[in-house]
Amino acid sequence: MEQTPADAYPLRARLGRAVFEVTRWVLDEAPPGVSETDVRELVAVADHIMQPSEPFDARWRSEWQIATNHLRRLREMLIAAAT
C-alpha cells in the first residue's frame, strides 16, 4: 500500500505504540524463539522515523517498510512459539 504525507502522523503514532508494547513484552516475558536482535533493530529504525521532524520522503517510506518487515517477522516468531 502506498502511503501519502497525510498518512505519516498516524503511522508514526501506531508504530510508536507497537514498538513500545513489543519492547516491553520482549523484555518482560518473550517466549523462546523470539529474537531480541529483531526487536533492537526495530527500535533503532522506529526511533528515527517516529521523529516529527523527519520528512515523509522516499527514505522515510523505505525505513517504514523495514520497520513493518521487523514487525511481520516478530509476528511470525510469536505464532511459531505458540505452536
Can you give a write-up of this model?
- The protein has 83 residues and is mainly α.
- It has a domain at 32-83.
- Helix content is 73%, strand content 0%.
- It has three helices and no strands.
- α1 packs antiparallel against α2 and α2 (36-49) packs antiparallel against α3 (58-82).
- It is elongated.
- The chain starts with 7 loop residues before the first helix and ends with a helix.
- The mean pLDDT is 76.
Summarize the structure.
This protein is an all-alpha fold and 83 residues long. It has helices spanning 8-29, 36-49, 58-82.
Unreliable stretches (pLDDT < 50, length at least 5) are: none
* SSE class: mainly alpha
**What gap, in angstroms, lies between the N and C termini?**
30 Å
Tell me the fraction of residues in β-strands, as a range.
Answer: under 5%
Run of helices and strands: HHH
| Average pLDDT score | 76
- Quaternary state reads single chain
> Largest beta sheet, briefly?
none
Rg, nearest Å? 13 Å
Question: Would you count the extended β strands for me?
Answer: 0
What's the total helix number?
Answer: 3
Please give the share of residues in helix: over 70%
Gross morphology: elongated
Keyphrases for this structure?
mainly alpha, 83 residues
Write the layout of secondary structure elements.
Blueprint: H1 8-29, H2 36-49, H3 58-82
